[in-house]
Each structure stands twice: as structure tokens, then as C-alpha cells.
């Protein structure tokens, strides 16, 4: 992380200046984003056997990119031209998020989903740590307590104690670290970037990554038909294509909302509300899969909610950033 922490600051003041409206906007955007993301994942779970991972990444991201480009053209066609040459920080943010998804999905076949989720949802702690080390935000004891409560709630909710810890655990932990780096980059280095530009760049990187993965599987002979991670390009029905369109639209909205959320409010606060994914996942489990949360899950979700509230209570605004870190 030394290379990241030693980079010069582009702005003399934090992108977050402290107005309550901005904070509430960021919270609303990230809450809506994780709601849509959890619903998207539930839809994939219902029909995911019809796709391969690389195929889903390519198709969903291409559809999302199409929606974003259409939005750009409808609003300001010049924005579509500007998005062809985004800044290096936008590229770095997209690459970090692409690596995040790669690490997380690579871990899932090798370990329980509960343990993988517990490791991944350490992201708010990494976000707060990186934000503090980079000088972007002051994380006071009260906010640390809220972050700690939310993290404890995640661990309790997923109940990982019964699962043997193996070396593969570094993959979801790595996903959390890369997500945290992307969050801090968004808040510090991309405050002047348009959310549509960042969302389009992210989906282009994701689509390219999925295509590269499929090509690597095909050329290496490692493809295994019928498997989600190692599959190539199974035939899709009309319903599968319609689902891809819905998932692509959701991904476009999610990418824009997340980018705007981390520009509107401190990354450590938005990171805590990212954990709202688990709350919505419990809701979809009841509504779509008829699975009620266990007592441990209910207790953990309560701690997550309490930690989110504590972390967002009004605090003094952060001071000016240093010219060099």
C-alpha cells in the first residue's frame, strides 16, 4: 500500500464538506444500490444454472454499458465522448473492482458462502483504515465503535465458527481490501468525475475481464461444460436473455448509485451501509426462498443496523487534506 499512500493529493480539501443533505444522499444511494444488488443476486441464484460466470459477466456488463451510453446520449452527448478517455484514477478504480469480483467469485467454489461473506464484509474496516491513513477522513472513537458493531454483526450473522479456515480465505479478504481501495479512490481522486463515466468504464472493464476469462478457459482447455465458474457459453432461452436485460439495467443503476454515494459522503460511513446487503438478502430469502433468518442471523442483522446508525451520527467535519501524504 505504500505506493498508494505516497501519491500526491489532487484536491486541497475533502470531497465531503459535511452538509447533512449530502450525507443523507450518500446513504440513500448506497442503500438503494445494495437493495438492487441483493435482488440481482437472488435472481441469479434462482436461474444462475443457465449461465457460466464469464458469459454472465460479459452479457450483463454489455447491457449495462448500453443503458449507460443511452443515458449519456439522451442527456449530454458530449459526455459520451469524454467517457472514452477517463482519467487514470477511473481506470484504477475499475481495475480494483474487477479484481475484487474475481477474488470473491474464485473463493466461492472452494469455501462456504458464510465464511466468504464474513471475510468480504470486513471491507468497512479496511475502508476506515485506508481513509484514516491517507488523511482523507478523521475516524473518531464513536465511529470506530459503530464500524466495530457492524463488523461484529456480520460475523455473528454468518456464523463462520463451524467452518475450517484454509489458505483460500485470503481471496475474500483480498476482495474486501480491493473494494476498500476502490472506495477511497472514488472519494479522494474521483470527486470531480461524472458517475456515468465511472459506471461506463467499470462495465467495460468487467466485460473485457469476462471475455479474457472465457478466452483463457477455451485456449487452455480448462473449460468444463455445465459448471458456473469454468463453463464457457451455454445456450440461452428467451427467458434467460430477458433476465440478462434486467440484470444489466440493475447493474447500470447500481454502478451509478455506488459511484455517486462515495462522492457524496465519507467512505467509512458509506462502507458501513454497504453491509445493508445482508439485511436485504435476509428479506429476499424470506420472500423468494421461504427461508427465515436464524436467531444468530437476526442478532447479527440487529448489530449491523445499530452500527450503521452509530457511525452516521453527526460529527465535526473533516479538516483540510494535506498537500502530500
What does this structure look like?
With 325 residues, this protein is an all-alpha fold. It has 14 helices and no strands. The chain has helices at 2-5, 20-47, 53-75, 77-82, 88-107, 113-120, 123-133, 141-158, 170-189, 195-220, 238-264, 267-274, 276-289, 295-311. Helix 3 packs across helix 11 and helix 8 (141-158) runs antiparallel to helix 14. It is globular, with a radius of gyration of 19 Å. The model is unreliable at 1-17 and 315-325 (pLDDT under 50).
Write the layout of secondary structure elements.
Layout: H1 2-5, H2 20-47, H3 53-75, H4 77-82, H5 88-107, H6 113-120, H7 123-133, H8 141-158, H9 170-189, H10 195-220, H11 238-264, H12 267-274, H13 276-289, H14 295-311
Amino acid at each position: 500500500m505504500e505506493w498508494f499512500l505516497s501519491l500526491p493529493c489532487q484536491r486541497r480539501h475533502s470531497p465531503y464538506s459535511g452538509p447533512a443533505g449530502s450525507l443523507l444522499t450518500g446513504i440513500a444511494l448506497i442503500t438503494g444500490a445494495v437493495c438492487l444488488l441483493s435482488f440481482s443476486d437472488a435472481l441469479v441464484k434462482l436461474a444462475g444454472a443457465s449461465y457460466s460466470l464469464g458469459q454472465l459477466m460479459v452479457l450483463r456488463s454489455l447491457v449495462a454499458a448500453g443503458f449507460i451510453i443511452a443515458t449519456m446520449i439522451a442527456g449530454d452527448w458530449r459526455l459520451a465522448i469524454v467517457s472514452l478517455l477517463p482519467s487514470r484514477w477511473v481506470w484504477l478504480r475499475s481495475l480494483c473492482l474487477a479484481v475484487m469480483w474475481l477474488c470473491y467469485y474464485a473463493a466461492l467454489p472452494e469455501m462456504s458462502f458464510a465464511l466468504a461473506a464474513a471475510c468480504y464484509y470486513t471491507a468497512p474496516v479496511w475502508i476506515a483504515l485506508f481513509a484514516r491513513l491517507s488523511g482523507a477522513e478523521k475516524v473518531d472513537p464513536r465511529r470506530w465503535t459503530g464500524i466495530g458493531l457492524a463488523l461484529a454483526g456480520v460475523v455473528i450473522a454468518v456464523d463462520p465458527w463451524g467452518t475450517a479456515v484454509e489458505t483460500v480465505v485470503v481471496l475474500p479478504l483480498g476482495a474486501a481490501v480491493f473494494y476498500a481501495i476502490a472506495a477511497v479512490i472514488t472519494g479522494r481522486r474521483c470527486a470531480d468525475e461524472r458517475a456515468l463515466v465511472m459506471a461506463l468504464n467499470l462495465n467495460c472493464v468487467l466485460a473485457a475481464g469476462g471475455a479474457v476469462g472465457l478466452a483463457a478457459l477455451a485456449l487452455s482447455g480448462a473449460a468444463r461444460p455445465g459448471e458456473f465458474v469454468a463453463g464457457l457459453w451455454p445456450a440461452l432461452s428467451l427467458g434467460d436473455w430477458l433476465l440478462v436485460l434486467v440484470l444489466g439495467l440493475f447493474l447500470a443503476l447500481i454502478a451509478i448509485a455506488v459511484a455517486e454515494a462515495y462522492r457524496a459522503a465519507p467512505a467509512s460511513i458509506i462502507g458501513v451501509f454497504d453491509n445493508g446487503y445482508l439485511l436485504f438478502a435476509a428479506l429476499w430469502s424470506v420472500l423468494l426462498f421461504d427461508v427465515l433468518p436464524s436467531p444468530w442471523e437476526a442478532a447479527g442483522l440487529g448489530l449491523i443496523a445499530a452500527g450503521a446508525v452509530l457511525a452516521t451520527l453527526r460529527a465535526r467535519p473533516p479538516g483540510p487534506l494535506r498537500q502530500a501524504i
